[in-house]
Amino acid sequence: MDGSIMPTRMLLDIEDLTVRFVTREATVHAVNGVNLQVQAGEVLCILGESGSGKSVTLRALMRLLPAGRTRIEGRITLDGQDVLSLDRKRLQAMRGGLVSMIFQEPMTALDPVYTVGAQIIETVRQHRGGSQRDARARALELFELVKIPSPERRLDAYPHELSGGLRQRAMIAMALSCAPKLLLADEPTTALDATVQIQVLILLRRLQREMGMGTIFVTHDLGVASEIADRIAVMYAGRIVEEGPVADILNNPKHPYTQGLMASTVHAQDRQADIAAIPGSPPDLRRLPAGCSFRPRCAAALAACRERVPTPVFPAANHMARCFRVAAEMGEGA
Amino acid sequence: MLVLILRRLAYAAPIALGVSLVCFSLVYLAPGDPLQAVMPADVTPDMVEMIRHEYGFDKPIPVQYALWLWRAVQGDFGLSIGSRRPVIVDVLGSLQNTLLLTSFAVPIAFVIGYTLGAIAGCFPGRWLDRTVTGFAVMGVSVPNYWLGIVMVIAFAVELSWLPATGMGPRGSDAFSIFSLGDLRYLVMPVFTLSMVPVGIIARSTRAAVAEIRGQDFVITLRAKGLSETAVIRHVLKNALPQVLAVMGLQFGYLMGGSILIETVFTWPGSGFLLAKAIINRDIPVLQGAILLLSLVFVATNLVVDLLQSAIDPRIRRA
After folding, report:
1. CA B165, B86, B80: angle at the middle one, nearest 5?
2. Closest by alpha carbon to B87, among B308, B301, B290, B298?
3. Which chain B residues touch A95 with a CB distance below 8 Å?
4. Which residues of A touch B225 (CB under 8 A)?
5. Do A160 and B313 make contact, defined as CB atoms within 8 angstroms?
6. In chain A, what residues touch B124 (CB-CB under 8 Å)?
């Protein structure tokens, strides 16, 4: 393709993914042609505000969206398997085995009437079989791995008996129970206290490196992304508007939306200075504007932005932006 | 667990006391003089005074209540005006007969209702759901005495498969659940009695299952690769506490006896007894029956509470 993709075999390859939610009243265009690759052992951060389609992309890739009213198009290849055409048996083997997911809110994401230990044991036995005793030993091992204090006792605790941080650790233990090749983390630190956030983030980064998992980390928090990511993909209105190595994106953002995100983040600015917010609000996904979705909020918009969706351009190696302004500047520079 | 039981018992005590107060005041709430029923027509004023004194009606009302309660906790509710037997004998006998019906009807209703409700809840809006919901509405709304009569006509009169009424040729005292011949007498009353609870349990199960299937943790269950059957097992366990609460209420209602059904099948249960006592203005029987029934209700709620907290530990803290 465009030379941006490394020639090695990808762990995950998403091609032109489109997700629409169809109801009688309206069609919501949640994801509109997303291309993503993740290599084994690599951490990709998807950055974007609420409703930009980041969670939907993750859920589509595990086929967790409600079947009846969801239309998924495109191609998802995970470890050589075509995810969208897997039969039920293979899909179940894939979920939790090859790829697993950590959710934002561990309180509601764990079953309240089973102990956390039972929920991990269940997962282990689903994928690896074996006796209750072996699975429990594995669960204990996992609890030690995620640094839960008094792990033996905590296995028999119900989710509501644990603190938020411990719950999320238990959730991580469950996700890692069958050593997945790809870990999907859907804002795993958003619901936690600030101090706990950092602990969980450090834990995740350590585990990711030790286990060599490919990881997609969804967040709206630039700080989190800069801590953990190898690469960042910025999503807006169901499209990836900019993507590149973490240093490039943070230091040299090209797309006006990414630049706006950086400007609207609290750094060590002067206290008196107002934080620069991006004017306007994200578009209604039921009625996307023609052309670039960011155009109505963009100070740098060109005439072409109104007519067509910008095609990807590469201002630097492995650094992609979908923006006519960036393309024009590159033309001037050349 | 023991602490929990003791605490729930402590909650139940004031309820039981309140009920006893209401039962006691029945004597004064009912129109007419409570002694009218027992006195001969040609009674002299002196005799009235004597009888009043004899029965303790000349004492202040709080003292009367205390005396009545003291005897009641010892199981002494006096003599039935109708049968001249101790009230406690009549009430316990009839409660036992109703318990026989209820202890078959409620588990049957639970199994059928829970299964139907679970199926409906898993396919909300689909034809299976509509069929089950329709059946449940029918179960609740068809008058069960009518159903009872139709069944008597069909299975007893026309087909002669089942006995029409009563508790067997040897009478209610000799009834044994180990005798197949006796059990035949249970079939129609139990079936008729379970129709309403089947409908109610099916509907509440459906609602609970449909609600819980929409919760976040169900996505986690799928995301970790569980089969749809395993997911439904999780959902059903989560739905169970809500459904048990409904089932407990139904058990309580049925223990009060269905006057109509027990009349249709001439089943000498608590509904039958209450109906008779009301017609005869048999206040001692009413007092004893209502007090014991309320205690059964309170006890049922206690059992449901404990079952619920065994399934869902979050309830223990409440």
Report:
1. 70
2. B290
3. 222-225
4. 92-97, 123, 126-127
5. yes
6. none
Residues in Cβ contact with A206 at an 8 Å cutoff, skipping those fewer than 6 apart: none
Same domain, B69 and B154: no
Distance CA A132, CA A125 (A): 8
Does the beta-carbon distance from A109 to B219 stay under 8 Å? yes
Q: Considering the domain boundaries, does residue B79 fall inside one?
A: no
- Give yes or no for residue B37 having a pLDDT over 70: no
- pLDDT class of A162 with cuts at 50, 70, 90: very high
Shortest CB distance from A62 goes to which of B223, B227, B230? B223
Amino acid letter, residue A82: D
Mean pLDDT of B58-67: 84
Q: Which is higher by pLDDT, B268 or B1?
A: B268
Over residues B168-189, mean pLDDT: 77
With a pLDDT cut of 70, the percent of chain A lying above it is 93
The most confident of A246-250, A266-270, A296-300, B52-56, by mean pLDDT: A246-250
CB under 8 Å to A83, separation ≥6 — which residues? A61, A63, A76, A77, A91, A94
Final residue of a structural domain among B41, B73, B105: B73
Q: Are residues B187 and B272 in the same domain?
A: yes
Other C-beta atoms lying within 10 Å of the C-beta of residue A74: 16
Which pLDDT does position B317 carry in this prediction? Answer: 59
B314 chain-A contacts, CB cut-off 8 A = 112, 158, 160
Within-domain flag for B78:
no
Q: A200 in helix, strand or coil?
A: helix
- Asked if residue B171 is part of any domain, the answer here is yes
CA separation for the pair A68, A75 (Å, rounded): 19
Q: Name the amino acid, one letter, at A221.
A: D
Longest CA pairwise span in chain B (Å): 87
Q: Decide: B213 and B121 in contact? Cβ < 8 Å.
A: yes
Q: Are B282 and B82 in contact (CB under 8 A)?
A: yes
Same domain, B140 and B237: yes
CATH fit for domain A12-242, picks 3.90.78.10, 3.40.50.10800, 3.30.950.10, 3.40.50.300: 3.40.50.300
Average model confidence (pLDDT) across chain A: 88
Please state whether beta strands A239-245 and A214-219 pair in parallel, antiparallel, or not at all (unpaired).
Answer: unpaired
Do the bridges between strand A239-245 and strand A319-321 make them parallel or antiparallel, or are there none, so unpaired? antiparallel
Write the pLDDT tens digit of every residue in A169-187.
999 999 999 999 999 999 9
CA–CA distance from A220 to each of A258, A284, A289 (Å)? 12, 19, 23
Q: What is the DSSP string of B76-141?
A: ---B-TTT-SBHHHHHHHHHHHHHHHHHHHHHHHHHHHHHHHHHHHHSTTSHHHHHHHHHHHHHHH
C-alpha–C-alpha distance, residues B181 and A326, integer Å:
91
